[in-house]
Amino acid sequence: MRRRTQPPPSPLPQRNGVDPVRLRLPVGNTWTTVRDHLAARLATAGIAVIDDMLDTGRIVDAAGRPVSRDTAYVPGMFVWFHRELPDEELVPFAIDILYQDEHLVVADKPHFLATTPRGSHVAETALARLRRQLDIPTLGAAHRLDRLTAGLVLFTVRPEERGAYQSLFRDRRVAKEYEAVAPYDPALPLPRTVRSRILKERGILAAREVDGEPNALSRVELLEHRDGRARYRLTPSTGQTHQLRVHMSALGVPILGDPLYPVVTDPVAAGDFRRPLQLLARVLEFTDPVTGREHRFISSRVLEAWVAHEEWATG
Question: Is the residue at 238 inside a domain?
């Protein structure tokens, strides 16, 4: 079996906590120059933008040398550049650090903050913020939370150890508990385990349940209720996209503040932080694969629809 070539280290530093983009030129293609390939690969940027980046030395090779318009195309060659950062709305909530050692950082993420750079959320993400705040440029995410979900996220300090921590989540060796606030239905028998097959299609905002072998399993428990509203403990055994949100909606008690379930609503305007999704990653528990320590972390955040019940009720 062919062993995949390890990419060389980046010749460019991070910018504002964000890594440069790394591209590997495909093998088996016949472009004449690197510019020709970039024009095809980055067509949405436009050739004028690519030429400006080339002319100003903002695209470099593995040795940090600027790539010019006439640099020959070499299959397997790596090039790096910094993307132009989008205008991002500042998320006006802090990230709390619950734990830090030479291997791990456990952060308590606020609502509305993406975990890692993606799409229109780049510098204003938990990963980029923490790299700047803690001055740890090697910091990486072992897993992700939805941007709208608050709570515990595990980050790794050393790139060579990241795979070991990521495998905890991949192999389901992390005990996770979530908390949610949703309507109370006295006719809904709880606790119960929900099993279904969830399909998330690329380009479609909401996931959906379909027929077939279940790939999503969630335990739902009622913690307390008052005035038609309840606080639930949710324990997922799998990690499908939007799994808990889909399962709560399917039970007829969609999580408060959810813009996708049971129906997709108009997108929330940038800067509108009034009604966060009432879902919190409350607990992470695992055996450290590097040190062997037993860890149990509990979020200190509270869901405002429960503690500020009247404010949510009256809007």
Answer: yes
